[in-house]
Specification:
Helices cover 0% and strands 50% of the residues. With 111 residues, the chain is an all-beta fold.
Length: 111
């Protein structure tokens, strides 16, 4: 199990930009919090990095913090920019590609 940045029983602020930055070596991710009901993961992609099409059994929220993401949602293209939030229902086939260095917060919630 990935170690969470937050302790599940502690309230504390943090600066997201200091936790994950885009890397030419690949995709960076940090699990911020993991509980029985879901988890929150901070991702950083360099330009051109991508996750090929896959599904997930959970509800997913993607909040773009910086950069631009190109998503394919069940074959339909969608562009996300900073400040946008996207909900994906469980089992939706999707792929993610960064057109430029990008960071986003992924929140997975049990159905």
């Amino acid at each position: 199990m990935a170690t969470s940045v937050f302790h599940p029983e502690t309230a504390e602020p943090l600066t997201l930009a200091s936790l994950a930055t885009p890397s030419a070596a690949g995709i960076t991710s940090r699990t911020l919090l993991k509980t029985k009901g879901g988890k929150s993961v901070l991702f950083a992609f360099d330009a051109g990095q991508e996750l090929t099409e896959h599904t997930n059994p959970n509800h997913a929220l993607i909040q773009v913090l910086s950069g631009t993401l190109q998503l394919t949602l069940d074959g339909r293209p969608e562009t996300l920019t900073p400040g946008q939030l996207l909900h994906m229902p469980p089992q939706l086939p999707h792929a993610v590609r960064a057109e430029e260095p990008a960071t986003f917060l992924l929140t997975l919630l049990s159905p």
